[in-house]
Amino acid sequence: MAQKRTINFGAGPAKLPQSVLLEAQKEFLNYNNLGISVLEMSHRSSDFSKILSTAETLLRELLNIPDNYKVLFLQGGGSGEFSAVPLNLIGLKEDKCADYIVTGTWSEKAAKEAEKYGKINVVRPKVGGYTGIPEPSSWTLNPSASYVYFCSNETVHGVEYNFLPETKGVVLVSDMSSNFLSRPVDVSKYGLIFAGAQKNVGCAGVTVVIVREDLIGHTLNECPVVFNYKVQASNNSLYNTPPVFSIYIMSLVLEWIKNNGGTAAMAKLNKEKSSMIYDIIGASNGFYVCPVDDACQSRMNVPFRVGSKEGDEALEKKFLEGASQRGMIALKGHRSVGGIRASLYNAVTVEDAEALAAYMKDFLKENQ
Ligand code: PLP
Protein backbone atom coordinates (compact mmCIF):
# COMPACT_ATOMS: atom_id res chain seq x y z
CA MET A 1 0.00 0.00 0.00
CA ALA A 2 1.41 3.39 -1.03
CA GLN A 3 1.90 5.69 1.94
CA LYS A 4 1.90 9.48 2.06
CA ARG A 5 5.51 10.53 2.30
CA THR A 6 7.51 13.71 2.59
CA ILE A 7 8.28 15.16 -0.84
CA ASN A 8 12.02 15.03 -1.24
CA PHE A 9 13.54 17.50 -3.70
CA GLY A 10 17.09 16.67 -2.59
CA ALA A 11 19.98 16.70 -5.05
CA GLY A 12 21.31 13.34 -3.91
CA PRO A 13 21.02 10.93 -2.33
CA ALA A 14 17.62 11.55 -3.77
CA LYS A 15 14.08 10.27 -3.87
CA LEU A 16 13.58 6.65 -4.95
CA PRO A 17 10.38 5.35 -6.55
CA GLN A 18 8.07 4.24 -3.76
CA SER A 19 7.39 0.90 -5.45
CA VAL A 20 11.14 0.18 -5.38
CA LEU A 21 11.32 0.90 -1.65
CA LEU A 22 8.30 -1.31 -1.01
CA GLU A 23 9.75 -4.14 -3.07
CA ALA A 24 13.08 -3.87 -1.23
CA GLN A 25 11.20 -3.79 2.07
CA LYS A 26 9.18 -6.86 1.16
CA GLU A 27 12.32 -8.85 0.32
CA PHE A 28 14.56 -7.29 2.93
CA LEU A 29 14.78 -10.13 5.44
CA ASN A 30 14.17 -12.99 3.08
CA TYR A 31 15.39 -12.41 -0.45
CA ASN A 32 14.07 -14.90 -2.97
CA ASN A 33 13.14 -17.28 -0.13
CA LEU A 34 16.79 -17.77 0.75
CA GLY A 35 16.20 -16.81 4.38
CA ILE A 36 18.83 -14.06 4.18
CA SER A 37 18.94 -10.42 3.12
CA VAL A 38 20.81 -9.20 0.02
CA LEU A 39 22.94 -7.33 2.56
CA GLU A 40 24.22 -10.69 3.77
CA MET A 41 24.68 -12.32 0.40
CA SER A 42 28.02 -13.46 -1.01
CA HIS A 43 29.03 -11.57 -4.11
CA ARG A 44 30.19 -14.92 -5.53
CA SER A 45 26.78 -16.59 -5.06
CA SER A 46 24.58 -17.53 -8.00
CA ASP A 47 21.80 -15.34 -6.58
CA PHE A 48 23.99 -12.24 -6.63
CA SER A 49 25.27 -13.20 -10.03
CA LYS A 50 21.64 -13.04 -11.24
CA ILE A 51 21.15 -9.61 -9.67
CA LEU A 52 24.31 -8.31 -11.35
CA SER A 53 23.44 -9.70 -14.75
CA THR A 54 19.87 -8.39 -14.47
CA ALA A 55 21.23 -4.89 -13.76
CA GLU A 56 23.56 -5.09 -16.75
CA THR A 57 20.92 -6.52 -19.10
CA LEU A 58 18.41 -3.82 -18.13
CA LEU A 59 20.98 -1.07 -18.58
CA ARG A 60 21.99 -2.40 -21.98
CA GLU A 61 18.34 -2.53 -22.99
CA LEU A 62 17.39 0.90 -21.65
CA LEU A 63 20.33 2.66 -23.29
CA ASN A 64 20.69 0.37 -26.28
CA ILE A 65 24.36 -0.06 -25.39
CA PRO A 66 26.36 -1.45 -28.33
CA ASP A 67 28.12 -4.81 -27.86
CA ASN A 68 31.58 -3.27 -28.04
CA TYR A 69 31.03 -1.45 -24.74
CA LYS A 70 31.69 -2.86 -21.28
CA VAL A 71 29.41 -2.03 -18.36
CA LEU A 72 31.16 -1.84 -15.00
CA PHE A 73 29.69 -1.43 -11.51
CA LEU A 74 32.33 0.23 -9.36
CA GLN A 75 32.73 1.99 -6.02
CA GLY A 76 34.16 5.41 -5.21
CA GLY A 77 31.18 7.49 -6.33
CA GLY A 78 31.26 10.17 -9.00
CA SER A 79 34.44 11.58 -7.46
CA GLY A 80 36.19 8.22 -7.54
CA GLU A 81 35.23 7.88 -11.18
CA PHE A 82 36.34 11.33 -12.32
CA SER A 83 39.67 10.45 -10.73
CA ALA A 84 39.71 7.07 -12.47
CA VAL A 85 39.05 8.59 -15.92
CA PRO A 86 42.50 10.20 -16.38
CA LEU A 87 44.20 7.22 -14.73
CA ASN A 88 42.65 4.96 -17.37
CA LEU A 89 42.39 7.17 -20.43
CA ILE A 90 44.98 9.93 -20.43
CA GLY A 91 47.57 7.39 -21.59
CA LEU A 92 45.54 6.71 -24.77
CA LYS A 93 47.96 9.03 -26.58
CA GLU A 94 51.61 9.62 -25.89
CA ASP A 95 51.21 13.34 -25.13
CA LYS A 96 48.96 12.60 -22.13
CA CYS A 97 46.75 15.65 -22.80
CA ALA A 98 43.02 16.04 -22.23
CA ASP A 99 40.45 18.79 -22.79
CA TYR A 100 37.98 19.64 -20.04
CA ILE A 101 34.90 21.76 -20.70
CA VAL A 102 34.29 23.30 -17.30
CA THR A 103 30.72 24.39 -16.68
CA GLY A 104 30.41 23.99 -12.93
CA THR A 105 31.71 22.52 -9.72
CA TRP A 106 31.89 18.92 -10.87
CA SER A 107 33.75 19.41 -14.12
CA GLU A 108 36.02 21.88 -12.32
CA LYS A 109 36.88 19.28 -9.67
CA ALA A 110 37.39 16.64 -12.36
CA ALA A 111 39.81 18.89 -14.27
CA LYS A 112 41.77 19.61 -11.10
CA GLU A 113 42.07 15.92 -10.36
CA ALA A 114 43.18 15.17 -13.94
CA GLU A 115 45.95 17.76 -13.68
CA LYS A 116 47.79 15.29 -11.44
CA TYR A 117 48.26 12.94 -14.38
CA GLY A 118 48.76 14.96 -17.55
CA LYS A 119 48.45 18.27 -19.39
CA ILE A 120 44.93 19.57 -19.07
CA ASN A 121 43.46 22.19 -21.36
CA VAL A 122 40.48 23.81 -19.66
CA VAL A 123 37.68 25.51 -21.60
CA ARG A 124 35.74 27.82 -19.30
CA PRO A 125 32.80 30.21 -19.61
CA LYS A 126 33.94 33.82 -20.06
CA VAL A 127 31.78 35.20 -17.26
CA GLY A 128 32.49 34.57 -13.59
CA GLY A 129 30.11 32.03 -12.09
CA TYR A 130 28.59 29.04 -13.80
CA THR A 131 25.40 30.04 -15.53
CA GLY A 132 25.92 28.74 -19.05
CA ILE A 133 27.90 26.66 -21.51
CA PRO A 134 30.57 28.49 -23.49
CA GLU A 135 29.62 28.80 -27.17
CA PRO A 136 31.08 25.66 -28.82
CA SER A 137 32.55 27.74 -31.70
CA SER A 138 34.77 29.45 -29.07
CA TRP A 139 36.20 26.20 -27.68
CA THR A 140 39.85 25.66 -28.50
CA LEU A 141 40.21 21.90 -28.38
CA ASN A 142 43.45 20.03 -28.81
CA PRO A 143 43.20 17.56 -31.72
CA SER A 144 45.85 15.35 -30.12
CA ALA A 145 44.06 15.16 -26.76
CA SER A 146 43.43 11.69 -25.39
CA TYR A 147 39.84 12.69 -24.66
CA VAL A 148 37.40 15.58 -24.21
CA TYR A 149 35.60 15.59 -20.85
CA PHE A 150 32.34 17.28 -19.95
CA CYS A 151 29.68 17.01 -17.26
CA SER A 152 26.31 16.68 -18.96
CA ASN A 153 24.43 18.12 -15.98
CA GLU A 154 26.07 20.33 -13.39
CA THR A 155 24.07 19.46 -10.30
CA VAL A 156 25.08 22.45 -8.19
CA HIS A 157 24.43 25.12 -10.82
CA GLY A 158 21.61 23.55 -12.84
CA VAL A 159 23.49 23.75 -16.15
CA GLU A 160 22.63 20.93 -18.58
CA TYR A 161 23.79 20.19 -22.12
CA ASN A 162 21.02 19.70 -24.62
CA PHE A 163 23.52 19.02 -27.42
CA LEU A 164 26.36 16.63 -28.01
CA PRO A 165 29.80 18.29 -27.97
CA GLU A 166 31.59 17.97 -31.33
CA THR A 167 35.11 16.66 -30.78
CA LYS A 168 36.25 15.91 -34.33
CA GLY A 169 36.97 12.28 -33.60
CA VAL A 170 38.57 12.74 -30.17
CA VAL A 171 37.14 10.36 -27.54
CA LEU A 172 34.23 11.92 -25.65
CA VAL A 173 33.86 11.31 -21.90
CA SER A 174 30.83 12.37 -19.90
CA ASP A 175 29.93 12.57 -16.24
CA MET A 176 26.19 11.84 -16.31
CA SER A 177 25.82 11.38 -12.57
CA SER A 178 22.85 13.70 -12.27
CA ASN A 179 20.97 13.09 -15.50
CA PHE A 180 21.70 9.44 -16.24
CA LEU A 181 18.65 7.69 -17.75
CA SER A 182 16.66 10.91 -17.57
CA ARG A 183 16.50 10.90 -21.38
CA PRO A 184 17.68 8.80 -24.32
CA VAL A 185 21.40 8.96 -25.09
CA ASP A 186 23.27 7.61 -28.12
CA VAL A 187 26.01 5.69 -26.31
CA SER A 188 27.90 5.05 -29.55
CA LYS A 189 28.88 8.74 -29.66
CA TYR A 190 30.79 8.40 -26.39
CA GLY A 191 34.02 6.72 -25.40
CA LEU A 192 33.00 6.60 -21.77
CA ILE A 193 30.00 7.54 -19.66
CA PHE A 194 29.89 7.30 -15.90
CA ALA A 195 27.23 7.99 -13.31
CA GLY A 196 26.95 7.69 -9.55
CA ALA A 197 23.66 5.94 -8.77
CA GLN A 198 22.32 8.09 -5.96
CA LYS A 199 20.33 10.56 -8.07
CA ASN A 200 18.49 8.82 -10.89
CA VAL A 201 19.26 5.12 -10.64
CA GLY A 202 19.44 4.02 -7.04
CA CYS A 203 21.32 4.68 -3.86
CA ALA A 204 24.87 5.71 -3.00
CA GLY A 205 27.57 3.06 -3.22
CA VAL A 206 27.69 2.09 -6.86
CA THR A 207 28.90 3.99 -9.90
CA VAL A 208 28.15 2.77 -13.41
CA VAL A 209 30.87 3.01 -16.06
CA ILE A 210 30.07 2.37 -19.72
CA VAL A 211 33.29 2.23 -21.67
CA ARG A 212 34.20 1.33 -25.24
CA GLU A 213 36.33 -1.80 -25.28
CA ASP A 214 39.19 -0.44 -27.37
CA LEU A 215 39.82 2.29 -24.75
CA ILE A 216 40.55 -0.25 -22.06
CA GLY A 217 44.15 -1.23 -21.36
CA HIS A 218 46.01 2.09 -21.42
CA THR A 219 45.96 2.55 -17.65
CA LEU A 220 48.76 4.44 -15.87
CA ASN A 221 50.88 2.37 -13.50
CA GLU A 222 49.85 4.43 -10.50
CA CYS A 223 46.14 3.57 -10.98
CA PRO A 224 44.74 1.73 -7.93
CA VAL A 225 43.78 -1.76 -9.03
CA VAL A 226 40.10 -1.35 -8.07
CA PHE A 227 39.82 1.55 -10.55
CA ASN A 228 41.62 -0.28 -13.35
CA TYR A 229 38.99 -0.83 -16.06
CA LYS A 230 40.92 -3.74 -17.57
CA VAL A 231 41.05 -5.57 -14.26
CA GLN A 232 37.42 -4.84 -13.41
CA ALA A 233 36.17 -5.67 -16.92
CA SER A 234 37.98 -8.99 -17.00
CA ASN A 235 36.54 -9.83 -13.57
CA ASN A 236 32.97 -8.79 -14.44
CA SER A 237 33.19 -6.00 -11.77
CA LEU A 238 33.99 -8.63 -9.15
CA TYR A 239 37.73 -8.08 -8.69
CA ASN A 240 36.87 -7.15 -5.12
CA THR A 241 33.64 -7.11 -3.13
CA PRO A 242 31.14 -4.92 -4.98
CA PRO A 243 28.40 -2.90 -3.24
CA VAL A 244 25.90 -5.75 -3.46
CA PHE A 245 22.92 -3.98 -1.92
CA SER A 246 23.38 -0.82 -4.03
CA ILE A 247 23.54 -2.94 -7.19
CA TYR A 248 20.38 -4.76 -6.11
CA ILE A 249 18.55 -1.46 -5.56
CA MET A 250 19.78 -0.26 -8.93
CA SER A 251 18.37 -3.35 -10.62
CA LEU A 252 14.97 -2.57 -9.08
CA VAL A 253 15.15 1.05 -10.25
CA LEU A 254 16.12 -0.01 -13.77
CA GLU A 255 13.17 -2.37 -13.86
CA TRP A 256 10.94 0.48 -12.69
CA ILE A 257 12.26 2.72 -15.49
CA LYS A 258 11.62 -0.04 -18.02
CA ASN A 259 8.10 -0.65 -16.73
CA ASN A 260 7.39 3.05 -16.92
CA GLY A 261 8.28 3.50 -20.57
CA GLY A 262 12.09 3.74 -20.55
CA THR A 263 14.24 6.79 -21.14
CA ALA A 264 11.89 8.40 -23.68
CA ALA A 265 9.05 8.39 -21.16
CA MET A 266 11.39 9.71 -18.44
CA ALA A 267 12.45 12.55 -20.75
CA LYS A 268 8.84 13.53 -21.40
CA LEU A 269 8.00 13.59 -17.69
CA ASN A 270 11.18 15.45 -16.78
CA LYS A 271 10.40 18.11 -19.36
CA GLU A 272 6.86 18.43 -18.03
CA LYS A 273 7.98 18.72 -14.39
CA SER A 274 10.77 21.19 -14.99
CA SER A 275 8.73 23.36 -17.40
CA MET A 276 6.12 23.70 -14.68
CA ILE A 277 8.70 25.29 -12.37
CA TYR A 278 10.53 27.34 -15.01
CA ASP A 279 7.20 28.74 -16.25
CA ILE A 280 6.37 30.04 -12.79
CA ILE A 281 9.84 31.57 -12.46
CA GLY A 282 9.49 33.19 -15.89
CA ALA A 283 6.05 34.63 -15.14
CA SER A 284 6.95 35.98 -11.69
CA ASN A 285 8.16 39.41 -12.81
CA GLY A 286 11.57 38.92 -11.28
CA PHE A 287 10.32 37.63 -7.93
CA TYR A 288 11.86 34.25 -8.72
CA VAL A 289 15.09 34.37 -10.71
CA CYS A 290 16.91 31.47 -12.32
CA PRO A 291 20.47 32.58 -13.11
CA VAL A 292 21.05 29.97 -15.83
CA ASP A 293 20.89 30.81 -19.57
CA ASP A 294 17.62 29.60 -21.11
CA ALA A 295 19.38 27.25 -23.54
CA CYS A 296 20.99 25.13 -20.83
CA GLN A 297 18.53 25.23 -17.95
CA SER A 298 18.60 21.81 -16.34
CA ARG A 299 15.54 19.57 -16.24
CA MET A 300 17.04 17.80 -13.25
CA ASN A 301 18.12 20.58 -10.90
CA VAL A 302 16.25 23.90 -11.00
CA PRO A 303 18.14 26.59 -9.06
CA PHE A 304 16.47 29.91 -8.32
CA ARG A 305 16.64 32.94 -6.07
CA VAL A 306 13.67 34.48 -4.29
CA GLY A 307 12.92 38.21 -4.05
CA SER A 308 15.68 39.45 -6.36
CA LYS A 309 18.53 38.37 -8.62
CA GLU A 310 20.89 38.15 -5.66
CA GLY A 311 18.23 36.57 -3.44
CA ASP A 312 16.57 38.06 -0.39
CA GLU A 313 17.92 36.03 2.51
CA ALA A 314 14.89 36.51 4.76
CA LEU A 315 12.43 35.62 1.99
CA GLU A 316 14.42 32.53 1.02
CA LYS A 317 14.44 31.38 4.64
CA LYS A 318 10.68 31.94 4.80
CA PHE A 319 10.23 30.06 1.51
CA LEU A 320 12.10 27.03 2.86
CA GLU A 321 10.17 27.08 6.15
CA GLY A 322 6.83 27.28 4.33
CA ALA A 323 7.84 24.44 2.03
CA SER A 324 8.78 22.30 4.98
CA GLN A 325 5.38 22.97 6.57
CA ARG A 326 3.80 21.63 3.39
CA GLY A 327 5.90 18.49 3.59
CA MET A 328 8.51 19.49 0.99
CA ILE A 329 12.14 19.14 1.99
CA ALA A 330 15.72 19.53 0.73
CA LEU A 331 15.00 22.63 -1.38
CA LYS A 332 17.96 24.62 -0.06
CA GLY A 333 20.49 25.50 -2.76
CA HIS A 334 24.00 24.08 -2.59
CA ARG A 335 26.02 25.81 0.12
CA SER A 336 28.41 27.24 -2.48
CA VAL A 337 25.68 29.11 -4.39
CA GLY A 338 22.83 29.64 -1.89
CA GLY A 339 19.21 30.23 -2.86
CA ILE A 340 16.82 27.43 -3.70
CA ARG A 341 17.33 24.29 -5.78
CA ALA A 342 14.56 21.88 -6.70
CA SER A 343 15.88 18.54 -7.91
CA LEU A 344 13.37 16.80 -10.14
CA TYR A 345 14.94 13.43 -10.86
CA ASN A 346 13.06 10.52 -12.44
CA ALA A 347 11.46 9.39 -9.16
CA VAL A 348 10.00 12.84 -8.44
CA THR A 349 6.44 12.61 -9.70
CA VAL A 350 4.38 15.12 -11.67
CA GLU A 351 2.21 15.45 -8.54
CA ASP A 352 5.32 16.32 -6.49
CA ALA A 353 6.25 19.03 -9.01
CA GLU A 354 2.64 20.27 -8.99
CA ALA A 355 2.77 20.58 -5.20
CA LEU A 356 5.90 22.72 -5.48
CA ALA A 357 4.40 24.79 -8.29
CA ALA A 358 1.25 25.46 -6.25
CA TYR A 359 3.34 26.52 -3.27
CA MET A 360 5.50 28.82 -5.40
CA LYS A 361 2.38 30.51 -6.76
CA ASP A 362 0.92 31.00 -3.28
CA PHE A 363 4.21 32.29 -1.91
CA LEU A 364 4.49 34.75 -4.78
CA LYS A 365 0.98 36.08 -4.14
CA GLU A 366 1.62 36.50 -0.42
CA ASN A 367 5.08 38.05 -0.62
CA GLN A 368 5.42 39.98 -3.84
N1 PLP B 1 29.43 14.46 -10.57
C1 PLP B 1 28.23 15.05 -10.42
C2 PLP B 1 27.54 15.60 -11.62
C3 PLP B 1 27.63 15.14 -9.16
O1 PLP B 1 26.44 15.72 -9.01
C4 PLP B 1 28.31 14.59 -8.04
C5 PLP B 1 27.72 14.68 -6.70
O2 PLP B 1 26.73 15.29 -6.43
C6 PLP B 1 29.56 14.01 -8.24
C7 PLP B 1 30.09 13.96 -9.51
C8 PLP B 1 30.32 13.43 -7.10
O3 PLP B 1 29.69 12.29 -6.66
P1 PLP B 1 30.10 11.54 -5.31
O4 PLP B 1 29.63 12.38 -4.17
O5 PLP B 1 29.38 10.23 -5.44
O6 PLP B 1 31.57 11.38 -5.32
Order of helices and strands: EHHEHEHEEEEEEEHHHEEHEEH
For this structure, the quaternary state is single chain
Q: Summarize the biggest pleated sheet.
A: 7 strands, mixed
Radius of gyration: 21 Å
Q: In words, what does this structure look like?
A:
By secondary structure, the protein is α/β, with parallel strands linked by helices. It contains nine helices and 14 strands. A seven-stranded mixed β-sheet has the order 2-10-9-8-5-3-4, with helices on both faces. A three-stranded antiparallel β-sheet has the order 11-12-14. A two-stranded parallel ribbon has the order 1-13. The longest helix is centred in the last third of the chain and has 21 residues, at 262-282. Pyridoxal-5'-phosphate binds at residues 12, 77-79, 106, 151, 155, 175, 177-178, 196.
Summarize the model shown.
The protein is of the alpha/beta class and 368 residues long.
Secondary structure layout:
Blueprint: E1 7-8, H1 18-26, H2 46-63, E2 69-74, H3 77-89, E3 97-101, H4 105-114, E4 119-123, E5 147-151, E6 153-154, E7 159-160, E8 172-175, E9 192-196, E10 207-212, H5 229-234, H6 244-259, H7 262-282, E11 288-289, E12 301-306, H8 313-325, E13 328-329, E14 340-343, H9 350-367
Bound molecules: pyridoxal-5'-phosphate.
Features:
seven-stranded mixed sheet; three-stranded antiparallel sheet; single chain; 15% strand; 368 residues; alpha/beta; 9 helices; binds pyridoxal-5'-phosphate; 14 strands
